[in-house]
Amino acid sequence: MSETRTDTVGTDGAGGTDDAVRRVLAEHGRLSVDPGSVDIDADLYAAGLTSHASVNVMLALEDAFDIEFPERLLKKSTFSSIAAVVAAVDEVRGQG
Amino acid sequence: MDTETGRERPRVHPAVPAPPVPAGGGDLRVGVDLVRVADVRDSLDRFGERYLARVFTEDERAYAMAASPDVAARRLAARFAAKEAVIKVLRPQDAPAWTSVEIVRRGDGSCEVRLHGRAAQLAQDAGLGPVAVSLSHEDEYAAASAAAWCAGGSGAERPAEGCAREGGS
């Protein structure tokens, strides 16, 4: 059993985090829409994100940002939109 | 027909005991979920131990991983589906951690649900009785269903508002 870790994202600005989140969604989210162009507040579950895919998204985000989501953030609403994901990442990184 | 309550007993799969009907009556909540086994296999390949640790309890992992890799993925997929089905029964505002819903295999092959932490609190707050669950898996897909009676919280004379809501996806 192997682990694939993506490169850690050295982002400081909100735009960089947004782009990185969209890249993770593109690789792991299996959305029915293009994560690169979806509205930041669009419902990701309505766009095809499943519960199991959200696990992969969560783990990939941890790799990308070198963070670990605390259990209190492992909830459906954290992955409900790109804006919500960015907010959660920023909170864990201490930038929110 | 239940001779004490006069209610029709719910029809359930023979392998799953019918959850007890609350003495004061109540509503039956159900949940179901379907998982592609290949998705679980991909997660194991990509994230390995981290995936297992965030989603499954030690006992769930021990049982699943004792089988061949293909069967292990099927067992894990079925358990993920069962967790999601149970979470749908709990109807939380925000889903609890996957490890707070544990699927325990009985000696006869049937499974039971063990709730921990926030999942247990959600069940208590909603006045849920024991949660029954049934799992199934084959090469491509795994599925699970869950059910529990909602008595509407301790001391309630009628089901709480939450019990009357429609089940969601």
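Residues 4 and 96 of chain A are 28 Å apart (CA to CA).
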